From TrEMBL:
<dbReference type="Pfam" id="PF00884">
    <property type="entry name" value="Sulfatase"/>
</dbReference>
<dbReference type="GO" id="GO:0004065">
    <property type="term" value="F:arylsulfatase activity"/>
</dbReference>
<keyword id="KW-0325">Glycoprotein</keyword>
<keyword id="KW-0732">Signal</keyword>
<comment type="similarity">
    <text>Belongs to the sulfatase family.</text>
</comment>
<dbReference type="InterPro" id="IPR024607">
    <property type="entry name" value="Sulfatase_CS"/>
</dbReference>
<protein>
    <submittedName>
        <fullName>Arylsulfatase</fullName>
        <ecNumber>3.1.6.1</ecNumber>
    </submittedName>
</protein>
<dbReference type="InterPro" id="IPR000917">
    <property type="entry name" value="Sulfatase_N"/>
</dbReference>
<feature type="domain" description="Sulfatase N-terminal">
    <location>
        <begin position="24"/>
        <end position="398"/>
    </location>
</feature>
<keyword id="KW-0378">Hydrolase</keyword>
<dbReference type="InterPro" id="IPR017850">
    <property type="entry name" value="Alkaline_phosphatase_core_sf"/>
</dbReference>
């Protein structure tokens, strides 16, 4: 009798769903600040990511997937709601996410899905739309982090956060209702600042890492707005917090001691041993080094630790893929890997994100669904993080609200022509008074060109991406690009009208 009632309830839950096919499970893996240039499937020359490469070989890699606002909380809100920042209310990290609004997890749960999220949340309000959640408070810690459980409250767990989040994800899958499909969002802290690698990765990337050609960019062929930022490796990285060195000149409140205080004595000893020789060398030789040499030392330390954090993520993605295969879930589970935005890995001399330049604007997006998504496919269609919610709802056979700004790219992932092909995409960053002092701007990108308006400075920049992929030379105002410029200005205004974005200064 109990078995009969269970089947009956399951059939009732299926009622709001279109179609008769068995609905897929969804495992959405999300990291923080993972640049495509640090994924070998995207052509990285710096590192190798074998498990992400495996996912790409067995699924679809999107080459032109972009965020709508390159900063953590707004990107996460766009994923949940399918809306641009001005419409979902999460324009900056400082605001609290309105969990009462319509979100993709809520709609999937209404359609009969079990829903869970583990790991980084970073939206201040409690998660809504999830049957189970266990999230890091705020940014969370790499070592021995606290998690907030939806029923048991806050508790500290010993271990490394990337490993712990994976273990919590697998434990939830072990205990789920096997009769119902599920959405599981696995959100890693890594590779976010302060880039603390786990014990298993501390030995990696000890050889010199290739330096980007724009590391010592002087910003001379653009509008000049680049000079107001505070995100240069040379001038703005913190010795203790960012570079894992207890430096005598470190006068920041984010000291080395503050950065390692969550570690156990054994963890700290292992961590410090890994850097002891390099740190001693710098302290002894720094006085004789040129500014360029110090910059390059900082770059190597920064990139080494960033890539070690990425390696920890990649190793854990392998654990998740092996779990799905071993538990018989692989065949009917969509696995997606993405990150909330890109990141600067020394390009233009920078770390961090926020700008509409390609390195922070572009997001990784790799999706696998065996037998439904062609293996090893690469697509160049323009897509954005607002498309995640419509796509997952579409894959689950649930209705996609017409109010969402994003569109389903399920047809693209199936190797078909895009159902709603885009010729241009819209971006708006507005948190100019926050850390790093990147000026507010909005813009439009097509397959070949980009236009940005820095409205606080009443300044435009425009780039020919086919001839200048590193965006070193703004062609705004160049007579040779007059027609392109006119077209981009029209497209930008049209997108602002279409999305009803009245925030920021209007186009002049």
């Amino acid at each position: 009798m109990k078995r009969f009632l269970s089947v009956l309830i399951c059939l009732m839950l299926l009622s709001p769903v279109r179609g008769q096919e068995r609905r897929p499970n969804i495992v959405f893996v999300f990291t923080d600040d993972h640049a495509t240039s640090a994924i070998s499937a995207y052509g990285s020359t710096r590192n190798v990511t074998p498990n992400l490469d495996r996912l790409a070989r067995e699924g679809v890699l999107m080459e032109n997937f972009f965020c709508t606002n390159s900063i953590c909380a707004p990107s996460r809100a766009a994923i949940l709601t399918g809306l641009h920042s001005h419409a979902n209310g999460q324009m900056t990290n400082q605001q609290t996410f309105d969990g009462s609004q319509t979100t993709m997890p809520k709609l999937l749960r209404e359609a009969g899905y079990q829903t869970a999220i583990v790991g980084k949340w970073h939206l201040k309000s409690d998660p809504t739309g999830f049957d189970h959640w266990e999230v890091l408070p705020g940014q969370g810690r790499y070592y021995n982090p606290e998690y907030i459980h939806h029923e048991e409250g806050r508790r500290r767990v010993e271990g490394y956060s990337t490993d712990l989040t994976t273990e919590k994800a697998m434990a939830w899958m072990d205990g789920r209702d096997a009769e119902r499909p599920f959405l599981l969002m696995v959100h890693y802290k890594a590779p976010h600042r302060s880039w603390q690698p786990g014990p298993q990765e501390l030995h990696l990337y000890r050889d010199p890492i290739p330096v980007p050609p724009t590391l010592e960019d002087d910003y001379s062929r653009r509008s000049g707005v680049q000079r107001v930022q505070e995100m240069e490796i040379a001038r703005h990285m913190l010795w203790g917090h960012d570079l894992a060195i207890d430096h005598p000149d470190d006068d920041s409140r984010f000291t080395y001691e503050a950065t390692v205080r969550s570690m156990t004595p054994e963890q700290r000893a292992t961590y410090e041993t890994a850097f002891a020789e390099e740190n001693a060398w710098l302290i002894e030789n720094e006085k004789d080094m040129t500014p360029s040499e110090i910059l390059r030392w900082k770059y190597q330390r920064y990139l080494g630790n960033y890539l070690r954090c990425v390696a920890g993520v990649d190793r854990n993605i392998g654990r998740l893929l092996d779990y799905l295969q071993g538990s018989g879930l692989e065949e009917n589970t969509i696995v997606i890997y993405s990150s909330d935005q890109g990141f600067y890995l020394g390009e233009h001399g920078w770390f961090d994100k926020r700008w509409m330049y390609e390195e922070s604007f572009r997001m990784p997006f790799i999706a696998r669904w065996p037998g439904r998504f062609p293996a090893g496919l690469t697509r160049a269609d323009l897509a954005q993080n607002i498309d995640v919610a419509p796509t997952l709802l579409d894959a689950a056979g649930a209705e996609v609200p017409g109010s969402m700004h994003g569109v389903s790219i399920l047809s693209v992932l199936k190797g078909q022509p895009a159902a709603f092909p885009r010729s241009s995409i819209y971006y708006h960053f507005s948190a100019s008074e926050a850390w790093h002092r990147v000026p507010a701007h909005y813009g439009v990108r097509t397959a070949t060109h980009k236009l940005m308006y820095f409205y606080e400075h009443d300044t435009f920049e425009m780039y020919d991406l086919s001839l200048d992929p590193q965006e070193m030379n703004s062609v705004y105002g160049d007579p040779a690009y007059a027609d392109v410029q006119e077209d981009l200005l029209y497209r930008l205004q049209s997108l602002r009208n279409d999305f009803n974005d009245t925030t920021g200064e209007p186009l002049p």
